[in-house]
Amino acid sequence: MAVKKLILDDFIDDVNYTLIAVHCSIEGYRLAYFLNKKLGLNLKRKHEDIDLNTLAKYPIFEWEDIKQQVTWHLVSNVCRIEEVIQPQENTLFHSQATRQNTFYLIPEYKRVNYFLKINDDGLLSKNSKNTLSNIQEIPHVITAYNVDVDTIKSKNNLIFY
Questions:
Q1: Which of 53, 71, 70 is nearest to 62 (CA)?
Q2: Across the strands, what pairs with 45?
Q3: Residue 75: which CATH number?
């Protein structure tokens, strides 16, 4: 009897995207505003934050350009959560202390504040240098650069629904 094999590689679409790391110290909504203004985008905050089954939730901004069939995502890489530490019972002072925990969307890039993910299927990759230079012209952005997605171990965190 003949054995038939189904190779899934033919059916799985390899999604191409450009990932830009952005170092800046401003809030996400301000960065989204400056990107909208500088690049002619229309990034808007999604109602649902990214939740990776941890305590951390990462704010995300999205814009789908229907004309060019490009989807832009601006996502924070850092989430800081403050938790209350229960005081020990046999201490002189019974004040509550707090501890701040920091979580990262992509732990390999702990110094990156935001990632700009551009789902472009290779169409916009030609203009990535122009996009990078425009991002670097924003006064509050320290630096921005392309990230090689193949070297990231936690690239599953970049799958947004």
A1: 71
A2: 61
A3: 3.30.310
**pLDDT, tens digit (0-9, with 9 covering 90-100), for 70-106:** 999 999 999 999 888 776 666 666 667 788 999 999 9
Token representation of residue 14: 């390899």
Q: 24: domain range?
A: 14-84+96-156
Within 3-153, strands assigned E span 17-24, 44-45, 50-51, 57-58, 60-65, 70-76, 78-85, 97-104, 114-119, 141-146
Assess if residue 7 is contained within a domain: no
For the chain, helix, strand, coil in percent to 5 are 25, 35, 45
In Å, how far are 27, 43, 99 from 139, measured between CA atoms? 14, 19, 32
The model's pTM is 0.82
Q: Would residue 125 count as lying in a domain?
A: yes
